[in-house]
Amino acid sequence: MSLLSVRDLNVKFAMRDETVTALNGISFDLAKGERLGIVGESGAGKSITGFALMNLLSRPGFIDSGEILFDGQDVVTMNNKQLREIRGNRIAMIFQDPMVTLNPVLTIGQQMVETLRAHRKVSHEEARQIAVVKLREVYIPSPEERLDQYPHELSGGMRQRIIIAIALLLDPQLIIADEPTTALDVTIQADIMELMLELCQSNQVGLILITHDLGVVSQMTERTLVMYAGRIIESGRTRSIINDPQHPYTQGLINALPQQTQPGERLRQIPGNMPTLAQIPSGCAFNPRCEFATDTCRSQIPKISQYGEVEVACHEVHRLQLETQLEDQEA
Amino acid sequence: MFAYLVKRVFQAIAVMFVISLIAFAIQGNLGDPLRELVGQSVSEEVRQQLREELGLNDPFLAQYLRFVSNALQGDLGTSYFFKEPALDVILKKLPATLELVLGATIIIIGLSVPLGVYTAIKPNTILSRGIMGLSIVGISVPVFLTAILMIFLFSVELGWLPSFGRGDIVPVWGYWETNFATADGWLHILMPSIALASIMLPLFVRLIRAEMMEVLQSEYVRYATAKGINPWRIYFVHALKNTLLPVITVGGVQIGTMVAYTILTETVFQWPGMGFMFLEAVNRVDTPLIVAYLIVVGGIFVVTNTIVDLIYGLVNPTVNLARMGA
Fold this sequence. Notes:
The complex is a heterodimer.
Chain A: E1 4-14, E2 19-30, E3 35-39, H1 46-53, E4 61-70, E5 73-74, H2 80-86, E6 91-94, H3 98-101, H4 108-119, H5 124-137, H6 143-146, H7 156-168, E7 174-178, H8 186-203, E8 206-211, H9 214-220, E9 223-228, E10 231-237, H10 238-243, H11 248-255, H12 295-299, E11 305-307, E12 310-312, H13 317-330
Parallel strand pairs in A: 3-8, 3-9, 6-7, 7-8
Antiparallel strand pairs in A: 1-2, 1-4, 4-5, 9-10, 10-12, 11-12
Helix pairs in contact in A: 4-5, 5-7, 7-8
Chain B: H1 2-27, H2 33-38, H3 44-54, H4 60-72, H5 86-121, H6 126-140, H7 143-157, E1 170-173, E2 176-178, H8 183-216, H9 219-226, H10 231-268, H11 274-283, H12 287-315, H13 321-324
Antiparallel strand pairs in B: 1-2
Helix pairs in contact in B: 1-12, 5-6, 5-8, 5-10, 5-12, 6-8, 7-8, 7-10, 8-10, 9-10, 10-11, 10-12, 11-12
């Protein structure tokens, strides 16, 4: 049985005069210890998905319908006490910006000890010892001293390591990491990702990595979901998606990677912007930016279905495949 | 820390210098002190002679320098009315005022935190809306009106509380006599404290509520929730400590302001404190007493602000007082 099973999840935002849909029919599964990437531009609904999985949406967002089965239990229908037992304990979360995630007026030790003691009956001293062990696992130098320091005394990379250590404190089954390196220096990003991969593999922890960086996804994850305007538009094994993307949006994302361009050449980009939630175009939400869009694309929402090795939501995927083959033959 | 204190003391001296200059400059515009001193039946020659003796004919700067040098030796002049050193007159009245401010401060701190936190956590309940509505009334109604209404209700109509004076007070040390030692003393200080708190309390409730609501939106509160921390711990440990940082700063200034508000409260309740004395001194054109009062109140402002800054440094780990001295 899969560790996490999301079925037809709909998330809405109650705005002043209307209710807008932020997530539309999200369904996916995650096996135990599996690492899943969720990619897409800003506004695609990646972070909302991450927060919804812990039932942690802040107002005006709310889960309208759908199931989130974690280990057989539905997170959506849980009461606050049941949610508290899961949060931080069985599902841990790593936030985007380590500079604002830790409480500025509490020491690192206080913030680690409280997490442990919220879920496990341990003494203050024992909790500190466990904290030191975990800080060592994330390669924090002189961990005993760090416990009595405040967040502002530590660098961004150091803080994100501490947040990873807090995530590992209670040996969770799943870690949700919401763009964990976006706010960090490029030089530190690789270190943090490597550390997370190493820890997830050695502890058999499942990972949901939310990012816009396809390069990171290809290194870190086994499976990938590509999201656009609140829907999953392509999903499958990461290798298949990176090597042979089917959806024009995914292709656009991969072509936009700097590695895909020769030095000196202009970087490629997808024309236009992600639509806002209140103004999602009819039909396929991507159609105004898609060079292959037809009348069908403009009127009907494509269903996600198996195509080759991946699942993809595109009306024109067959035609695209033919065209690419023809181009390949010409070349 | 020490370096910071030394720096603050120098700042305080500069502030006190400005206050003394202003206070002293007022002196010349408050009417002729001679009239208060000797009455009308003294001839013009004697008046001139007295003026010369008192140094009132000297240039402003000379008079001011003499005033400062006396002040530095603890002599702020002699009250025309009491025929006593002005500083002594004030120091005798100071404990009554400080106890009144203390009473009001206890009420403000004791009520504003729970009310502010409650209205921030549950902003939409009827109780919260009621508290917020009342707080607007509290801020809008002037202290003297609140005080008179309270006297009417609790003293005149119900007869529960005494309407004036300090009641049964017990000497503690020096000029200090306390209200907090006897039941009668407590009864007497209750209404004046509430009246004095009536403007600051709603202000603080609203301030704490606004700050708390902002803090509750912050990323670290969301993160604490994601860690499965109990909501009470989130409210009172994670959120409240961050909420109180700006409140402490504003609060310090307000305590000073409250000393000024005592003028109204003390007058309505016939409270024998500094504020009541100041009003009488103004009526009597007792210039040395007025000047001394301004300087003492200025001093209280400077001291409370310094203490508040020190407390802020202790509460906020990102402020390093040791480094700030450099």
